[in-house]
Structure formats: C-alpha cells, structure tokens
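For the sake of transparency, this paper describes our internal protein records without simplification. The remainder of this section carries one protein's record, kept here as part of the documentation:
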Amino acid sequence: MRQSEILLAEIKQESIATRKLLELVPFDKADYKPHEKSMTLLRLATHVAEISGWWKECLLDNELDFAKGDHTPKVITSTADLLALHDKHILQAEKILNSIAEEEFSKPWTMRAGETIFFTKCKSEVVRTWCMNHLYHHRAQLDVYLRLLDVPLPGVYGPSADAQG
C-alpha cells in the first residue's frame, strides 16, 4: 500500500472525530481559557480546523517560510464557519493525497523564518508530525477544554464516558 493511501485512510477516519468535536464548540464561551498561557477556546478550535489545511504547504511545497505570506488565523464566527473550514481542508487533503507521486514523500522540506532555518526533514516525517500528530495534540487539548466546560464528549476510538451514560 502506498504511503499516500495509508495517510488518506487515516485522514478520513480522524476527520470524523475532529468534526464531532468542532460541532460541540460553544461559541458563547469563545474566550474561555483554562490557563492564562492557553489559547482561547475559539482560537484552539480554529487551529484544529486549520491544521488539516497544511497538506499543501507540507507536501506540495518544499518549505514554509513564516517571513512570507499571511499567517493570520482565520476569523470564525459560527459553528457553520468552523465546520466549513474543516471540511474544505479535508477535501483539499484528500485531493492532494489522491494525486501525489509516492516519491514526493522522500523529498526534503524546510521550515524557516527568512534566513532562520528551524529544521529540514523529509516530507514523510513532516506530514506525520505537522499534519497528523500536531492535529491529534490540539484535538486532545480541545477535548480537555470541552470537558472543563461540562460539554458531553463523543467517543473517538470507542465510547466516551458521556456516551456510556
């Protein structure tokens, strides 16, 4: 099985769980932060929705330069906007993975800010770390925020404590 097929299957499965969480974000608590150093609930939820859009930068491009382009977070004002952003990025990721050549995964990729290079790694490692693991990390944070706000949580890899009753 090609690496792109493995990643595509994982994206399809995980996007369901991500979408379930994003549906639950209470916009009346958008400014909630469990700690002063934490992101707000809305910023975190938006970040979770944005991460699935990184496939283009991490797989089709050869670098991400923070000194170029606009890296301002999207402004989201509703659940519909949040879900639309997530869904748009998932469709884009699926399209990329359905068309990418397998040899693209072994090419080098660099994260930088102008002349400052943070790292260079092969694209297979970059997409695993930045497009997948990074998503899981922040999705788990979103889970915690929602739990602290007493929002009943859906199951991800089986029933949640809330789903079990």
Remarks:
- The chain has a mean pLDDT of 95.
- The domain at 3-148 is CATH 1.20.120.450 (Four Helix Bundle (Hemerythrin (Met), subunit A)).
